[in-house]
Amino acid sequence: xxxxxxxxxxxxxxxxxxxxxxxxxxxxxxxxxxxxxxxxxxxxxxxxxxxxxxxxxxxxxxxxxxxxxxxxxxxxxxxxxxxxxxxxxxxxxxxxxxxxxxxxxxxxxxxxxxxxxxxxxxxxxxxxxxxxxxxxxxxxxxxxxxxxxxxxxxxxxxxxxxxxxxxxxxxxxxxxxxxxxxxxxxxxxxxxxxxxxxxxxxxxxxxxxxxxxxxxxxxxxxxxxxxxxxxxxxxxxxxxxxxxxxxxxxxxxxxxxxxxxxxxxxxxxxxxxxxxxxxxxxxxxxxxxxxxxxxxxxxxxxxxxxxxxxxxxxxxxxxxxxxxxxxxxxxxxxxxxxxxxxxxx
Length: 345
What we know:
By secondary structure, the chain is mostly helical.
């Protein structure tokens, strides 16, 4: 049903092949109208007005695909009014079979070249097209695809599909909140007290400056701020998406184990959440409300240090002791906060 709704949604886009198939299909169906009427007559079925209804349906379907094809080329749907002009309409219909995607779309600067320029892509577009991929976006798909093949035992095609889906979601979110083109030296600007000129980047800069005292109290260092805020927004979003996927997978696995051991679904879910929180960190980019309880989410700026700490611990002969120590804390986050307090992380 979702694919059908996407197929009939004029807000989405239709590539040349899809448009051509739809064009031929509508033409063939139109030729079948007399045959269908004869078939109905043979069965003595009274469907008065069938031909009118069916022709209206085909016309509506055809208009939807023309609008989708116009959007794919970068033209406004208002160009559909060319269909009212004899001969011009025929030329336009045929021309849409050959015009490449994005031919009339305004070229947009890449994040590396114009980090503070705001993107003009419609973030509400349900069919956001990733093509052509930037070098950065392709490298992210390759990176996470390799990780998913290694750690999730996915096939190359499955891993690539998952990585592409996450990238698309990350890009849509970044475009929707106008952060896609945040400067990639935002961490340096924050530490140097140098506000960016772009209004959106300035608002993010001001928010982080307000959070700095709380971040410092939570153990965040200058290097942590540079590490996180000198990424591009799409890289930050992919890191968060990957963490969410990892957390979700682990939680579901624990839920399958606990659901037969508890009397209610809610109690099984709470048990699975508790187990997950003892094994995995939780991060947040939110306000300072996560600085008061040991179990609250950690500042996302700490992620690189936490990952490096656990990677080093996993290579130690005492790793099993470390895992046992973690289980003595209420959550993994509480364990990490204790390591920061003891200056071990």
